[in-house]
Amino acid sequence: MVKGVVFDMDGVLVDSEPFWQLAEMEVFPQHGVPITLEDTLKTQGLRIDHVVQFWFSRHPWQGATPRQVEQQILDAMVKVIQDKGQPMTGVLTTLDTLHQAGIPMAVATSSPHLLMEATLEKLAIGHYFRATCSAEHLPLGKPHPQVYLDAVDALNLHATECLAIEDSFNGLLAAKAARMHTLAIPDADHRGDPRYVIADRQYLSLEEFSLEHWL
């Protein structure tokens, strides 16, 4: 029985994955990285410092430090979230359903606190969450489970009592490693990915969410 729900943020609460792709495709070429739209899918769900390190190890650049490149991407992300951020389909209804049922909720994201706060403020949904956890300062981000374990602990529940809602495979691995129930909502580029079979359920969007499925 599910007693708590923990949401990933990017691609689950907010339609931000295209924004990440645009930000990366804007910033990385400035430093000589020949990144394509398809390339951005290789790092989906990873923490931004891991994304930058992924590309730096393959196309080392001179001048700007990896940390400076991270900040350039984050600055671009905050601006576009503030300008264009929209909730994913079914998010507001799902949050309200869980709230009305008295199910405590949390956010567990690989994104930095700055971006998480900007997103929750833009969508006006911060009041739904008892805890908001970022992997920003953890030794490892997803697919390591620590950010999910932190969120579950903040809800004062056991991981086996909680549902994680994820869009990326890296995030799904993190939730499974934490021993949570899992709901995967892959984006259009990953809906046919056979790896997502490890999820307990797959939806096309949160419009399909039914609390009865998890009680």
Structural key phrases:
six-stranded parallel sheet, single chain, about 10% strand, 6 strands, Rossmann fold, about 220 residues, about 40% helix, 2 domains, alpha/beta
Which CATH-level-2 architecture of the largest domain?
Answer: 3-Layer(aba) Sandwich
Number of strands: 6
Integer count of domains:
2
Helix content: 25-40%
Specify Rg, calculated over alpha carbons: 17 Å
Order of helices and strands: EHHHHHEHEHEHEE
Task: Identify the CATH homologous superfamily of the largest domain.
Answer: HAD superfamily/HAD-like
Shape: globular
- Strand order within the widest beta sheet: 3-2-1-4-5-6
According to CATH, the fold-level topology of the largest domain is: Rossmann fold
CATH class of the largest domain: Alpha Beta
Alpha-beta content class: alpha/beta
Oligomer: single chain
User: How far from one another are the termini?
Assistant: 5 Å
Q: Report the β-strand fraction as a percent range.
A: 5-15%
Overall mean pLDDT score? 94
